[in-house]
Design goal:
The complex is a heterodimer of chains A (355) and B (521). With 355 residues, chain A is an alpha/beta fold. Chain A is built from 13 helices and twelve strands. In chain A, strand 1, helix 3 and strand 2 form a beta-alpha-beta unit. The longest helix of chain A has 19 residues. The relative contact order of chain A is 0.17. Classes of the chains: A alpha/beta (355), B mainly alpha (521). Chains A and B meet through helix 1, helix 2, helix 4, strand 7 and helix 9 of A and helix 2, helix 3, helix 6, helix 8 and helix 13 of B. Chain B: It is a multi-pass membrane protein.
Chain lengths: 355, 521
């Protein structure tokens, strides 16, 4: 065990400290005075609290979170708390780990592709809402998960810098001059969306396509926020996001140079969903929140802060929504196939990008 | 009854440690063999991961030890002003919380860091480069200290003789220094290789993408990204096997004749190289700058980030969690050490001795991530990640500190039994009186030291917390990691300084209250 001695030697011979006894008592006092401060005084009895488990960008200061919280708290006489994970698939991963011990009432931010996997956990209660007419491309059947917005994945570029954006996913994969950032399909729903998109476009050739893409990928981030932030800082030419993202830049920053590239093959559809956890101690409140999510006011907040398409027809959406690209084709896949093949596809992706 | 008291604490302590270790391993193995797909072992991805793990550890060892040889020569060959301070700095480098160093390194070498600013380049730290810089930062000082201590053990008379024989630079190196260094280089390289192979936090924070994934990070991803327990089990088993092989090699190749004398040799001027070569001054300068810059960066960053000071209730909670976990794990480590040492005094057989020693240092070869993975998988079925986070982190941190606490206390303990044991026996002292008047006063300084050290190690540890902690579980290093992840460098630096202050306070508190007593007694 001699090598340990070395390790030990360097750590242990610490310089001796000269001391004065007064210093000790004062430091002791300091420590003991800090501890109660840190733990905080006992709080008065709170009214009901609803905890919603969602992804980071939803509750960031520019996201819909703060506005939704204010609006819902006004009508429910309760407190709405957020609990967050980096991105959508991360929600599912944490649910798998913590299951019925997860301290939340609602999970918001999974997408339709994860529904089958999520249901296998048997943690969710039916949504019990009678659905109003929805604007989704297909009728909604699910009795557990409630859709609250939708969108199409797309690569965003800065039209001042990139003069000739690719016209198709196949072109993007081949264009080595375009630096790309996307999200990890194991943690993020856009990343997973790309996984499906690639699979649909390239079929048997997907592994090669991933390798080609990897040659000009800057990085693969854990969540959407990080990727989009890096893109805006100029670290890449294109970033995986949604067709609706340019609306944000038009409405908030008043700039039009951020554009979504329309691809010939079509774009993959994502429907974001929320559901009540069966373990919730206040199911009525949770149901009230789900109903609230579909109310016109909440739908407007979501559309103009999460920058996705509302699932209900809303009057007077900001004009930027009218200028979005419309996908030539909405790419969809059977959810059963996804649930069955997901792991295989993930491994294929992992293999291709690690080389 | 008396026999029971004599043996039971030691048996229980050793039993607990082995139970903990084997339970962790059992879970890992159990899940590793449920991989029905069996796909992963012939997955080319795994080869990439393995290759990268070995590559980064190998390069880290090469740069650390290579640099350390130069640096050690530059230090050992001359007496210069501030030498003691430099040695103290090298020591501090090794004990610093990993995440704090990462932060400092990002500030210096990162994309918008000082270096890129100065040179006008766009060097990106994420990937192999960042991992290497960080590993070298930790291991170069470690290797340098070991080498300096050996170089200083060369007797003055050798140098005098060399001078008489008019051996000049190269020949002194060839006949005096190289033979000594040669004995150390291989063992040290393997030790650094092992440390880097088992390094988790650095690769996680600076890895940046699937291309630079090591086995340890792959375990984490299998567990937290995919919730794929069999895969995590297989990867952990692989990591474990390799770590043990390297550890055994390192132990075998480390020569027995080592000295652990503290470094306080004052050479006569004559014994030194009098060639005032600029080269060595430059090397010293580089070494100093390399070690000092990240530290300065943190202090500077925290100073300029005072306005972004992220005081909030969650920081308070994180502080409290860190302090409590540190306190519990350091107490646990010290109690285990004491019990095991007590047992050793009463069972003076060689095999027991070796067994205890092995138990104490087991945590050095077993990567904490592997153990924590096993425990984590094992507790999933019961309570999931609730308060188990705390228990698992305390257990893992205590085991990580055990090798140090055990060795720190051991010699004082031995000394006490050897010198006063017979006296106490002839006086017929009762056990409590023996502990109260002899053992505790005599071991109290190393005890305080090990308590403080274990506390600091636990305060700075992030790997286990990342792996087993629930997502809203918070400790100070985790807070820093999350702030770093969301590019809030200024706030992260402020918390890093706060973490350092906490380390200092804990160290001071334990050292001043407990360690002082022995001076008066």
């Amino acid at each position: 065990m001699l090598f340990i001695k070395h390790l030990f030697m360097t750590v242990v011979h610490a310089p001796r400290l000269k001391t004065r006894s007064k210093a000790i008592t004062s430091k002791l006092l300091l420590l003991f005075s800090i501890v109660p401060l840190l733990s905080g005084a006992a709080e008065p009895q709170q009214p009901l609290t609803l905890t919603v488990f969602t992804y980071e960008s939803f509750i960031s200061e520019w996201g819909p979170g703060p506005k939704l919280k204010a609006a819902f708290e006004k009508q429910c006489q309760c407190t709405l708390n957020w609990l967050s994970s980096t991105d959508g698939v991360g929600l599912l991963n944490r649910l798998r780990l913590e299951g019925e011990h997860l301290p939340a009432d609602i999970v918001l931010g999974l997408d339709q592709h994860l529904i089958v996997a999520a249901k296998k956990l048997k943690l969710f209660a039916p949504h019990q809402q009678s659905l109003p007419p929805l604007t989704l491309p297909d009728p909604w059947q699910d009795k557990v998960f409630l859709p609250y917005d939708y969108g199409y994945f797309a690569f965003i570029y800065d039209s001042r810098k990139l003069k000739n954006p690719p016209q198709s996913l196949a072109e993007l994969v081949k264009r080595k001059d375009i630096q790309v950032i996307y999200q990890d399909p194991r943690t993020s729903t856009p990343g997973q969306g790309l996984l499906l998109w690639m699979q649909q476009v390239f079929g048997n050739q997907t592994a090669q396509a991933w390798q080609q893409l990897a040659a000009h990928t800057v990085t693969i981030t854990k969540g959407w926020s990080e990727a989009y932030g890096m893109f805006l800082k100029g670290e890449a030419d294109m970033v995986l996001s949604y067709t609706t993202s340019p609306a944000y830049h038009q409405e908030v920053d008043k700039v039009t140079h951020y554009q979504a590239a329309a691809f010939n093959e079509g774009h993959t559809l994502q429907v974001e969903v929320a559901a009540q956890l069966a373990q919730s101690k206040q199911p009525e409140l949770a149901q009230q929140f789900l109903a609230f999510l579909l109310s016109p006011s909440a739908q407007r907040i979501i559309a103009t802060h999460n920058w996705m398409l509302p699932v209900r027809a809303i009057k007077k959406l900001p004009p930027a929504f009218g200028q979005l690209i419309t996908p030539r084709k909405s790419l969809e896949m059977s959810l059963e196939t996804i649930a069955k093949q997901r792991k295989q596809w993930l491994r294929q992706w992992r293999r291709a990008v690690s080389q | 009854m008396s026999r029971l008291l004599k043996y039971s604490p030691g048996v229980v302590a050793t039993g607990c440690v082995w139970l903990g270790l084997s339970w962790g391993l059992f879970n890992v193995i159990k899940y590793a063999f449920t991989d029905v797909d069996g796909l992963i072992l012939d997955d080319p991805w795994l080869q990439q991961v393995l290759l990268f793990s070995i590559k980064q550890a190998g390069l880290s060892a090469l740069f650390s030890v290579g640099g350390a040889v130069l640096f050690a020569l530059a230090i050992a060959r001359r007496v210069f002003w501030g030498r003691q301070w430099l040695m103290a700095l090298l020591q501090v480098c090794f004990a610093l919380p990993v995440i704090v160093v990462i932060l400092g390194i990002v500030q210096v070498y990162g994309r918008s860091g000082w270096l890129n600013h100065l040179l006008g380049t766009e060097f990106s730290i994420y990937g192999l480069a960042g991992i290497l810089i960080c590993h070298v930062f930790f291991n170069l000082p470690l290797a340098t200290r070991v080498l300096v201590s050996h170089l200083e053990a060369i007797p003055d008379s050798y140098y005098a003789q060399a001078a008489q024989m008019q051996l000049n630079g190269w020949w002194r190196w060839r006949w005096l220094e190289w033979p000594l260094i040669r004995t150390q280089v291989v063992g040290l390289s393997l030790l650094v290789f092992l440390l880097c192979f088992n390094s988790f936090t650095i690769v996680l924070a600076l890895g940046g993408g699937p291309k630079s994934t090591t086995l340890e990070v792959a375990i984490y991803q299998a567990l937290r990204y995919e919730f794929d327990l069999p895969q995590a089990g297989i990867l952990a088993l692989l990591q474990l096997a390799l770590a043990i092989i390297i550890a055994v090699l390192a132990t075998r190749l480390m020569p027995a004749s080592t000295t652990t004398a503290p470094i306080s040799v004052h050479r006569s001027q004559q014994a030194l190289w009098l060639s005032a070569s600029k080269l060595w001054v430059t090397i010293r300068g580089f070494g100093l700058i390399f070690c000092l810059l990240p530290l300065l960066a943190i202090v500077w960053g925290a100073w300029s980030g005072l306005s972004a000071w992220p005081w909030s209730s969650s920081l308070g909670e994180a502080t409290l969690n860190s302090l409590l976990i540190g306190l519990c794990s350091s107490l646990l480590a010290c109690l285990l050490s004491l019990a095991m040492l007590h047992f050793r005094q009463h069972m003076r057989y060689r095999c027991v001795d070796r067994w205890l020693e092995q138990t104490a240092v087991a945590a050095l070869y077993l990567p904490p991530v592997v153990l924590a993975t096993g425990w984590f998988i094992g507790t999933l079925a019961w309570h999931r990640a609730d308060y188990w986070s705390y228990i698992l982190i305390v257990m893992a941190n205590a085991l990580m500190a055990l090798p140090f606490t055990f060795r720190l206390i051991a010699s004082a303990f031995q000394h006490c039994y050897d010198y006063y044991g017979p006296l106490a026996q002839s006086l017929g002292l009762r056990r409590w009186a023996w502990w109260r008047w002899f053992v505790l006063p005599m071991t109290n300084k190393p005890l305080a030291q090990s308590l403080a050290l274990a506390w600091i190690l636990s305060l700075g540890d992030m790997g286990v917390a990342v792996l087993v902690g629930a997502a809203d579980f918070n400790t100070l290093p985790l807070t820093i990691y999350r702030l770093l992840g969301s590019y809030q460098l200024a706030s992260a630096m402020a918390v890093a300084v706060w973490l350092l202050v906490c380390c200092g306070l804990c160290y001071g508190l334990v050292y001043l209250t407990l360690g002082r007593k022995s001076a008066s007694s």
